[in-house]
Design brief:
6 helices, about 260 residues, Rossmann fold, alpha/beta, 3 domains, Ubiquitin-like (UB roll)
Length: about 260
């Protein structure tokens, strides 16, 4: 019994007689207390009416987005104060506005947020099966919006996810057709990856699927090469079938 009591006393003395051990424990207590204090301070900051956000400064606007639309989103998603506002969540909400591709939001001391927009630049209309008005931007991305009145855009129709590929092909086809002074007004890609072009004079070109032996560019070149000799026979009801290994056929469009 005496030995046990002596051992316990020795252990206690060992702790108090070790400055390094005491300092380590004190450091841990200090760090833990600091974390608790910081956490409590953050909770207090979130609840106190200090550092309120008074201004949202728009430095790069989008013409199609009104101030009222921006204000409505701001009142809904900008919560908390200057220090606690969730910028990432607010940015995502602003990016849901029509004609907005990207939004950037940053703090400006002491009471403002600076909002910058990157707008959408349409290059084509997207014909969707659900009838929702959509457009294609210069990166080949589809976005929900209605084309402004008077803006003449080609119409793309194809499977979901094919808009970027169609934009690339559109540029290639339009360049070839420019040599015969014709504009490409509609481009269609079927589920089987067959291509159909509609020209500004109403003529429809059936190019079919891209094949290693007869690439699409080669078939379209065949048409542009012989266009001068057949243009007098072309009219708004014509379909030019280019899916032959050589040559092409003129057909009446089915009503």
């Amino acid at each position: 019994m005496g030995n046990t009591h002596a051992q316990a006393k020795a252990s206690g003395n060992l702790f108090w007689d070790s400055p390094r051990l005491i300092n380590s424990v004190a450091d841990l207590v200090f760090i833990f207390g600091g974390v608790l204090l910081a956490w409590a301070g953050l909770l207090v900051l979130q609840r106190l009416p200090i550092l309120p956000i008074k201004n949202v400064i728009v430095t790069a606007a989008v013409p199609q987005v009104s101030g009222a639309q921006i204000e409505q989103v701001a009142r809904t998603v900008i919560t908390g104060n200057f220090l606690t506002v969730n910028l990432a969540a607010a940015q995502r909400s602003f990016e849901q506005l029509p004609w907005v591709r990207l939004a950037s939001l940053r703090r400006q001391w002491p009471d403002s947020l600076v909002l910058t927009f990157e707008g959408q630049h349409p290059v084509a209309q997207w014909s969707s099966l659900d009838g929702e008005a959509r457009l294609v931007n210069e990166l080949g991305e589809v976005f929900v919006a209605t084309a402004p009145p008077g803006m003449a855009l080609p119409v793309f129709s194809g499977p979901e996810g094919s808009s970027a590929q169609m934009l690339t092909r559109y540029g290639e086809f339009a360049t070839q057709l420019a040599t015969i002074h014709r504009d490409l007004v509609a481009l269609r890609l079927s589920q089987r990856e067959a291509w159909q072009l509609k020209l500004d004079d109403g003529v429809v070109l059936e190019l079919g699927r891209d094949q290693p032996k007869t690439p699409l560019a080669e078939r379209l070149t065949r048409f542009t090469t012989h266009y001068a000799s057949v243009k007098d026979r072309l009219h708004a009801l014509s379909v030019v079938d280019m899916r032959y290994p050589s040559g092409f056929a003129l057909k009446a469009r089915k009503s």
